[in-house]
Amino acid sequence: VDADSWAWNTGQTTQSITVTPLSTETYTVTLTGNLQCDTTQQFVVNVENIPDINLQASQPSVCVNDTVSVNLVPPIPPNENPVWTLDGATIISGNANDGYSLLWTTKGTKNITVQATTAFGCTNSQTLVIDVMAWATPALSNPPPQCTGNPMLDLSLYDDDAFVGVWTGAGVSGNLFDPALAGPGNHILVFTPSGACTLPATV
Length: 203
Description:
- The protein is an all-beta fold.
- The chain has 1 helix and 17 strands.
- It has one helix spanning 179-182; strands at 5-8, 25-32, 38-45, 55-57, 61-63, 67-72, 83-85, 90-95, 99-103, 108-117, 123-133, 153-154, 165-168, 172-173, 176-177, 190-193, 201-202.
- It starts with a strand and ends with a strand.
């Protein structure tokens, strides 16, 4: 607009100004022409909130082929059009506005991303990391055949040093196997490791 001077309610006196309002604001400018005639104009700048995205997982890590729940708290309104990127996950149940129950068939670090956009075009996104671990089974060594008169056998000599766990079975007390207590016959001893995503092994 042609004028000799501009006086904004922000105190600025240039023809155009740059503003960064935190909420909807009205800006007023008074234009003075060469005949000293004043004209006042108003400009309303609407400020739209970005979508509120808060992703939460039921657990930070999960085993291959086990399910984990990833939820939006609170749910995202349907008009904000949430779009999920699931990094290869299989959806077991759920929906885009509330969240999903997911599983992966491969191990690794998985990134779950949700992006939402308002009707005004304001966009927000969040990424959540899930650690998917492979199942592991201890590699045990077979102890030699035992006679009922033999002394107790230390089973820790036959377990897998990469795992911590407990032995169970006939004649077992702690990490010791008592041939006399077990008696004659073939006995299956079970080593059950502690920790996530581990499976028991037998000898």
